[in-house]
Amino acid sequence: xxxxxxxxxxxxxxxxxxxxxxxxxxxxxxxxxxxxxxxxxxxxxxxxxxxxxxxxxxxxxxxxxxxxxxxxxxxxxxxxxxxxxxxxxxxxxxxxxxxxxxxxxxxxxxxxxxxxxxxxxxxxxxxxxxxxxxxxxxxxxxxxxxxxxxxxxxxxxxxxxxxxxxxxxxxxxxxxxxxxxxxxxxxxxxxxxxxxxxxxxxxxxxxxxxxxxxxxxxxxxxxxxxxxx
Length: 229
Known about the structure:
The chain has helices spanning 16-27, 34-47, 59-65, 98-108, 111-124, 137-141, 155-168, 175-191, 213-228, and strands spanning 5-10, 30-33, 71-76, 81-86, 89-90, 130-134, 147-152, 204-207. It is α/β, with parallel strands linked by helices.
């Protein structure tokens, strides 16, 4: 098997991270959750009062503080998958809250945030043997990736998955609020000026609305083998 770069893009809450994590573990690749990186910047901004009362971002203050935001991944020996750390603190659970979810798209639309994180992501993947998921991996971060997947599912299915995930973690969840958030994020992610969410021309589309995790994992592994063998 030759070592390749695998880019998995798609809408929020469509299972990209689960697919990417499981594939990376199965084939011995490094996994990078870029969405978690943008969520970590959002968490930092929330903790440092960089949002105004109307939800707008104090952009100049955040831009000045980007140098203080250190994001890294460390393997969780219990799960066998990487957790994300913000300035040395494990924030894997904190970044999944509805508060972060409702603020992340405007943060991710900021050109200076994207530039900083894309540069870091490209450094991570310079040696190939990496699975990375996000919104612009196949179009901006790794346009030359050997395997590009674009994942989609209905908004209702994605909202239900997010609801179930939050409830399973013992966190508060309201289905209608989550559905509204999913639809708002779809619009912002698809219409932002910098690196909008779109399917790369050479990406393979997967609608996993009616697939089990096992079925989509099997499908993804088959796509990997076609390219890597």
